[in-house]
Amino acid sequence: MTEISYPKVQFVEVQPEEAGQRIDNFLMKKLKGVPKSRIYKMLRKGEVRVNKGRVKAEYKIEAEDSVRIPPVRVSESKTEVPTNLNKVQDLEKAVLYEDERIIVLNKPHGMAVHGGSGMSYGVIEAMRALRPKAPYLELVHRLDRDTSGCLLIAKKRSALRYLHQQLQKKTMTKRYWALVNGAWPKKLKLVDAPLAKNQVKSGERLVKVTESGKDSKTSFRILEQFEGFSLMSAEPITGRTHQIRVHAQYVGHGLVGDPKYGDDEVNLSLKSAKLSDRLFLHAYSLKFKTQVDAKPIQVEAPLPTELEQLLNHLRSGQSI
Q: What is the pLDDT of residue 17?
């Protein structure tokens, strides 16, 4: 157990590059290691003040706001990220693009983007451990644990804010390679079906198509077709959890290797033949701008070897 202590009242002035974020997120960065539950309790009790007044967790801070942060002391069992592990060190080798504002990583399959849900650490915690002198590293978006490919990390608050604006305005382009079961219909180019999260008894999170769900759209394009499978380029127009996977299942063409929404029989036969034991979903391309007057940046992540080998097997016409 370690003790995290901020023994004195702090009065912090919000800097221009910090403006626009919610007060709860601001406090989490200022009080590193303090549990979210403690931060929300401080806000509810009015221990945190902005310009001498109480605020709710969703309040968005503005430049020159004066934030009163109360003393806080908590004990926690802290897990250090083991930077000597190969999979952690390999993240530095996975950098596809980097400048003074952002990093684009080729996230490996099987690694969560952040700790939680049984994972002591994820990509972002590992990157912070690998770069202890970096003042700011934050995820711009997320990828499922089982998905590989382009993952965008901001190195400045101003970059994060501008990139989030592009996500909201749908001006950032994200494209994925997905191998689906069956012959995808040539005329089916857009899946428009509302999605909602659903918790099942085991606590597992599933997403379903339902009229009461949130507006969700995915563009699909056929790249290659094989006996019993189709290689697709998928572009999510909205950014819902498991969107590509659920939309593909909804139209009857679940993703290969998908344990939640795929075809168990197909997945088992591929695994038995030692052809694939992972989800075939790879974020191969990201296109965005880091500043208003900057040129667009496009980054591509090569297809992982194990997925390329499966495609080559299908191209050869061999049976599964």
A: 76
Which entry of 24, 65, 144, 258 is annotated as an active-site residue? Answer: 144
Cα–Cα distance, 139 to 253 (Å, whole number): 30
| Stretches in the chain below the pLDDT threshold 70 | 1-4, 75-80, 83-84, 116-119, 199, 201-203
How far are the Cα atoms of 25, 31, 36, 58, 117 from residue 61, in angstroms, in the given order? 10, 16, 18, 9, 30
Residue 293 is predicted with a pLDDT of 87
The token duo for 177 is 């390679």
In the numeric block, which tokens belong to residue 52? 């001498």
Please state, in angstroms and as integers, the Cα–Cα distance from residue 184 to each residue in 112, 125, 228, 255, following that order.
30, 39, 10, 11
Q: What is the pTM of this model?
A: 0.76
B/e letters for 209-222, b = 16+ CB within 10 Å, e = fewer, are: beeebeebbbbbeb
DSSP labels, the chain: -EEEEE-S-EEEEPPGGGTTSBHHHHHHHHTTT--HHHHHHHHHTT-SEETTEE--TTPBP-TT-EEEE--EEEEE-PPPP-TTSHHHHHHHHTEEEE-SSEEEEEEPTT--SSSBTTBS--HHHHHHHH-TT-S--EESS---TT-EEEEEEESSHHHHHHHHHHHHHT-SEEEEEEEEES---TT--EEE--EEEEE-TTS-EEEEE-TTSB--EEEEEEEEEETTEEEEEEEESS--TTHHHHHHHHTT-PBTT-TTTS-HHHHHHHHHTTS--S--EEEEEEEE-SSTTSPPEEEE-PPPHHHHHHHHHHHTT---
Whether 99 is catalytic is: no
d(CA 145, CA 178): 15
What is the separation, in whole angstroms, between the first and last Cα of the chain? 52
Question: What pLDDT does 193 receive?
Answer: 97
